[in-house]
Amino acid sequence: MKPGPRNLITDVAGLKVGQAQEARLRSGVSLLVGARPFTAAVSVMGGAPGTRETDLLAPDRLVQEVDALVLSGGSAFGLDACSGVADGLRAMGRGFAVGPALVPIVPGAILFDLLNGGDKAWARNPYYDLGLQSLQAASEEVALGTAGAGFGAATGRWKGGTGSASVVLDSGFTVGALVAVNALGSVTVGQGRHFWAAPFEMGGEFGGLGLGGMAPMDDPLPMKRMGEATTIAIVATDAALTQAQATRLAVAAQDGMARAIVPSHSLLDGDLVFAAATGARPLQEPVKDLFQLGHAAATCLARAIARGVYHATPRPGDLQPCWSTSG
User: Fold this and answer.
1) How much of the chain is helix, strand and coil, in % rounded to 5?
2) How many domains does the chain fold into?
3) Is residue 201 part of a domain?
4) How confident is the model over 230-287, as pLDDT tens digits?
5) Which CATH number does the domain housing residue 289 bear?
6) 49-69 tens-digit pLDDT
7) Do the domain assignments include residue 4?
8) Helix (H, G, I), strand (E, B), or coil: what is residue 246?
9) Are strands 108-110 and 65-72 parallel, antiparallel or unpaired?
10) What is the pLDDT of residue 272?
């Protein structure tokens, strides 16, 4: 297992990421879109999620594929980003066909960043426009750190951010992750700078410090109020998966969140993982392949979480220090 050429979720062929943010708002949107609709599923393990259209991702629902997946800041207001994406996709002629009507399928999830010091006194919800802008900006490049849905994110100790990572398995499958890290918990051990995700790091991608010595567990929530949280993510693969199999992929990926954030999946976080499968490569040994894909998804997500914090950059008015400038 090794990183893909970009070490980004867009190493999964046919997928692009779009991001948009507004500095004054201190918030933004990240989007995953494919060259064509793709199979999608979801796993929600946090106690305070905010979502749109996730019910249709169950394996027994009519619609089996989606046009895009959206991660957004803004709490419930951020769900309007999906509307901007949906309108943009319909203008492109994309969507689930119902007679002559096209209905783009755009599930989304949000994190809470309303108290991060940004100007939230809007007269009109800004997330519709940010969603549309993210679609228009979709490409194979992904800005890490202070960008997209993680633009105004925070963690229990450090400034949060947007992260991504990928792996290519010996079997040829590619797996990638995209995440907005806004956790109530901490991504580093104790009061130090060593990432919990260090055992899974590849090539010094987030500092190469290792775990350092396991410091005593102290208060992991020194700089956030309860409720100002939620880490939301997407894991993707080029494997041909059913919705049921994609659901298992999303569930397995949750392990990566638990490895990289302590604590995670709390009652006060809305922790959620979407899974996306483009279907380009059929499974050869289904049980073995699904086992390896799940492990790869968890590994990618843990690494992406650390990379999101590692790449965060300082801005005027920050309420938390950046990992990169605190060494």
Assistant:
1) 25, 25, 45
2) 1
3) yes
4) 999 999 999 999 999 999 999 999 999 999 999 999 888 889 999 999 999 999 999 9
5) 3.60.70.12
6) 999 999 999 999 988 899 999
7) no
8) helix
9) parallel
10) 97
Which residues neighbour 60 within 8 Å (Cβ) at sequence distance 6 or greater? none
Q: Please count the residues of the chain.
A: 327
pTM value? Answer: 0.95
Residue 197, classed as helix, strand or coil, is coil
Q: Which domain holds residue 135?
A: 9-325
User: Tens digit of pLDDT for each residue in 193-204?
Assistant: 999 999 999 999
Q: Measured on CA atoms in the order 128, 148, 150, 69, is the torsion positive or negative? A: positive
| β-bridge mates for residue 72, sequence order | 29, 110
Q: How far apart are CA 316 and CA 312, in angstroms?
A: 13
CA dihedral sign of residues 55, 153, 269, 189: positive
Buried b (16+ CB within 10 A) or exposed e, 247-279: bbbbbbbbbbbbbbbbbbbbebbbbbbbbbbbb
154: left (phi over 0), alpha (psi -120 to 50) or beta: beta
User: In angstroms, how far is CA 174 from the centroid of its own chain?
Assistant: 17
